[in-house]
Amino acid sequence: MTSVNGRPTDGNGASPDAARDDPSPSAPRHDTVAAVVGQWQAVHPDLDTGPMEIIGRINRCAVLLQQAEDAPLRRAGLSRPEFDLLGALRRTGHELTPSELTRETFSSGAAVTKRLKQLTERGLVERRGDTRDRRVAHVRLTDTGRELVDAILPEQLAYETTVLAGLDTPGQGELATLLGELLVQLEGRLGVLRV
């Protein structure tokens, strides 16, 4: 992208704003990150803003996707982190210790402890002490918790399918592959991030 009179252009002399305002269906569509990148290029034309175009879009997509995906969870009175805990117990199919749940959900120990307390109070999980070590607890889904996960998951996947419907199947596969490659690199370089 170049600039004309301090305004970013698409390389053909046209402003991104002009393309965004063009109502014709063949006009290229510009997202909010493109506008931000254009502004930075106008201020610092010497800087390579390529990384911003990727990371900025990933961050923006993450926020928007979470807002959309969490609708079925909100209706069930669950937060995304709580559902992740329940999901970890369901997909592994056996009891897990809080430390194992911490690793499975990329969360801190304190956050897992707080969420487990809330889920226990709701009757969705139960804890039992280890017969050999009183400091260790084992967590499992109750029947109610298992039924809730099994009821929500199809609705959650349907929601995600709808959200991604704008991308064709090959596009979704390509995006999944690229994001997988990026994730492997980041996990190797940065380690597993805890939240």
From TrEMBL:
The keyword Transcription applies. Keywords: DNA-binding, Transcription, Transcription regulation. SUPFAM superfamilies: Winged helix' DNA-binding domain. Residues 1-30 are annotated as: Disordered. Residues 18-30 have a biased composition (Basic and acidic residues). Pfam families: MarR_2. SMART domains: HTH_MARR. Residues 51-184 form the HTH marR-type domain. PANTHER family: TRANSCRIPTIONAL REGULATOR, MARR (PTHR42756), TRANSCRIPTIONAL REPRESSOR OF EMRAB OPERON (PTHR42756:SF1). This is MarR family winged helix-turn-helix transcriptional regulator. It comes from Streptomyces hokutonensis.
